[in-house]
């Protein structure tokens, strides 16, 4: 168990698209397919519907609570690195509130910003700890739940994204930038990678130098949001 929580095991490094990484991507696809395939059964059975909804809330909240307990136990708490100010950390909290309140406004944000950000994180993780470390499981469980939460709201609760929601999500992202950016300078931090690119390989690696990659990110975010809306532009969509 000590090795499971050992903060120094990260020196081994996380390898992108290693067997463990591919496995969690496959699990995400499987869970998404099962949620879609079983949508009618879940929708029609109130106890099952509640179990899935609260299961997603638990998958979002429990690992995060364990993470902060780990920070405290290992003396890793540092305002420059451990505050919940990353995009996925913020959408994670919004996803919990969305599921708990069945909020249409939060759905607009989590569907676009949550799926877009978490999917990019799943594909190019900024992660130091390899399988089977606690941080490996925390990272992938939480990011999978961020993606599955708005899919649950779509397929089970019957919510649908629209063009207005893209505007809401883009406004949300820009409000985050003007809020988190000054905090980065005050804390000498790099939340949301607003001051420099992540050390690990990611989409940002090919978007040019600072600060130009921030502008390109805006265009890419808009393009991703439009792609996420495309399945709902078909007439007579009954998913």
UniProtKB/TrEMBL annotation:
Keyword Cytoplasm carried by entry: no
Signal peptide range in chain numbering: none
Keyword DNA-binding: no
TM ranges: 12-38, 50-71, 83-100, 105-124, 136-156, 168-187, 212-233
One Pfam family of this chain: TMEM164
Keyword tags: Membrane, Transmembrane, Transmembrane helix
NCBIfam families: intg_mem_TP0381 (TIGR02206)
Protein name: TIGR02206 family membrane protein
Organism: Paenibacillus artemisiicola
Lineage: Bacteria, Bacillati, Bacillota, Bacilli, Bacillales
